[in-house]
Amino acid sequence: MVNGIINVYKEKGYTSFDVVAKLRGIFHQKKIGHTGTLDPDAQGVLPVCLGKATRVCDLLTDKDKVYKAVLLLGQETDTQDISGQVLNQAKVNVTEQAVYDAISQFIGRQKQVPPMYSALKVNGKKLYELAREGKVIERKARDIEVFDIKVESIDLPEVTMTVHCSKGTYIRTLCNDIGERLGCHGCMKSLLRVRVAGFDLEHALTLSQIQSKVDEGCFDMVMPVDGVFENLPAVHTASDADKLVRNGNKIPAVLTDYLKHSADSDIRYRVYNHEGIFVGVYSYLDETGEFKPVKIFME
Fold it and tell me: Among 3.40.640.10, 3.40.50.150, 3.30.2350.10, 3.20.20.450, what is the CATH number of 4-63+198-225?
């Protein structure tokens, strides 16, 4: 079984589930999961976890993301993108400066109401399933943060922008809300995910490129699990700690090569056994001088 993470370039027309299904066929294994849904019409970076790496999926979905989006002003749709049914239209009589001013107001922490056409579940049913039945239900606003929005170009009624945001941010909703702020409606025309955590567009591979590599017996596109945590300091355990490692117990710092340099218990570490095999991510408990497992990957 292949264990690791692949930086997939999701092409337009595929759902995130489609990508996983295709990769299961390519690698002939079932244990594969994606790290966050991308709309079928969206393209770009979709990290996919294979084998033991599926345990890191939830950690990657928590990461911030960067998107390049095209906002189309003058039109509101039920899906908040151009694939939906048009609900309202208006003339776009706004200045470029008004566009800049409106967009700047969406930078920072804020509440965002998820769209009806989304994969969020309410009472066990996905919102888009309810939307297709013609139902609209009240949704709770969620806390999100837009770290930055860079306007790349304005060619009214279109605005191209790069958005750096937190998890849970819907760019479709952001486009809709900017249009409403300008008083002329708006929807998303296109979306390209440029970056998720350390995975970027430059190194993403299409499904056909991945298939070709696997056919050639080449697996260099699979990032090892510990590669996701390369920003964390590494700690290696002594052979005396093997039993504790295997059982997922806390590990006394004296049984590692750890050199105390901070009393900050929030710091996490990559822990390896004495053979150099990646064990998992641990936090350091300063009060007891032990490493406590956060996420174990070694079987």
Answer: 3.30.2350.10
